C-alpha cells in the first residue's frame, strides 16, 4: 500500500473550512467536501472513516495552528497585562487572517461534534494553553486578576477576541490601533480586580 498524500489530506481538511465559511458547519457533507477538495468521494474514505472523522481532524488542525500563533512572541517574564495583550493581539490577528477557520472553530464549539471527544479535547486544550492558565494564575497571585475559575476567565477572554474580530470583519468598526487598544481595555477591565 502506498503512503497517503499529505497535500491531498490537507485539501480535504481545508475544504471543511471553506464550506463552513460559506454555508456553516451544517452545510458540510461528503459531496461538498469531495467537490471543494477536488477529490472523489471514495478517496475521502481512504483518508478518513466518516464526515465526523474529517470534522474532528479539521478541528485538531485549526486548534493546533491557532494555539501556535497565539503564543508567538509570548514572554511570561513580562508584566501580566503586557503578556495578555500579546496573546490577545495574536488571537485577533489569527481570526482576521483565517476567517473561514475561525467560523468553523466557533461553530464546532457550539455543535454536538465537540461532545464526541469532550474530555480528551478539554485535556488537550488545557495542555496547549498552559501558558495562558499560568499567566492568569500569576495575575491572581499578584492581586491583579479576579479570583474566578480559569476556564471562566479564558471563555470571557475568547469571547472578547471573537467580538472584536467579528466587529472588524463586519465593518462595524475599523481595524485601527485605537480600536484594538479600546477592545483590549474593555477586556482588561472585565477581568481585573
Automatic annotation (TrEMBL):
<dbReference type="InterPro" id="IPR050624">
    <property type="entry name" value="HTH-type_Tx_Regulator"/>
</dbReference>
<dbReference type="InterPro" id="IPR009057">
    <property type="entry name" value="Homeodomain-like_sf"/>
</dbReference>
<feature type="DNA-binding region" description="H-T-H motif">
    <location>
        <begin position="29"/>
        <end position="48"/>
    </location>
</feature>
<feature type="domain" description="HTH tetR-type">
    <location>
        <begin position="6"/>
        <end position="66"/>
    </location>
</feature>
<dbReference type="InterPro" id="IPR032551">
    <property type="entry name" value="BscR_C"/>
</dbReference>
<dbReference type="Pfam" id="PF00440">
    <property type="entry name" value="TetR_N"/>
</dbReference>
<dbReference type="GO" id="GO:0003677">
    <property type="term" value="F:DNA binding"/>
</dbReference>
<dbReference type="Pfam" id="PF16295">
    <property type="entry name" value="TetR_C_10"/>
</dbReference>
<protein>
    <submittedName>
        <fullName>TetR/AcrR family transcriptional regulator</fullName>
    </submittedName>
</protein>
<dbReference type="InterPro" id="IPR001647">
    <property type="entry name" value="HTH_TetR"/>
</dbReference>
<keyword id="KW-0238">DNA-binding</keyword>
Amino acid at each position: 500500500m502506498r503512503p497517503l498524500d499529505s497535500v491531498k489530506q490537507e485539501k480535504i481538511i481545508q475544504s471543511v473550512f471553506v464550506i463552513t465559511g460559506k454555508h456553516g458547519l451544517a452545510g458540510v457533507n461528503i459531496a461538498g467536501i469531495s467537490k471543494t477538495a477536488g477529490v472523489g468521494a471514495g478517496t475521502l474514505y481512504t483518508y478518513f472513516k466518516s464526515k465526523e472523522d474529517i470534522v474532528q481532524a479539521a478541528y485538531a488542525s485549526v486548534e493546533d495552528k491557532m494555539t501556535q500563533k497565539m503564543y508567538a512572541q509570548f514572554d511570561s517574564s513580562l508584566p501580566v497585562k503586557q503578556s495578555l495583550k500579546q496573546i490577545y493581539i495574536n488571537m485577533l490577528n489569527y481570526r482576521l487572517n483565517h476567517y473561514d477557520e475561525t467560523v468553523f472553530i466557533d461553530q464546532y464549539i457550539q455543535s454536538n461534534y465537540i461532545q464526541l471527544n469532550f474530555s480528551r479535547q478539554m485535556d488537550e486544550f488545557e495542555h496547549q494553553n498552559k501558558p495562558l492558565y499560568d499567566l492568569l494564575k500569576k495575575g491572581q497571585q499578584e492581586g491583579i486578576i479576579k479570583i474566578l475559575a480559569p476556564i471562566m476567565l479564558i471563555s470571557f477572554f475568547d469571547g472578547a477576541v471573537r467580538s472584536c474580530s467579528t466587529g472588524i470583519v463586519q465593518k462595524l468598526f475599523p481595524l485601527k490601533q485605537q480600536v484594538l487598544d479600546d477592545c483590549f481595555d474593555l477586556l482588561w477591565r472585565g477581568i481585573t480586580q
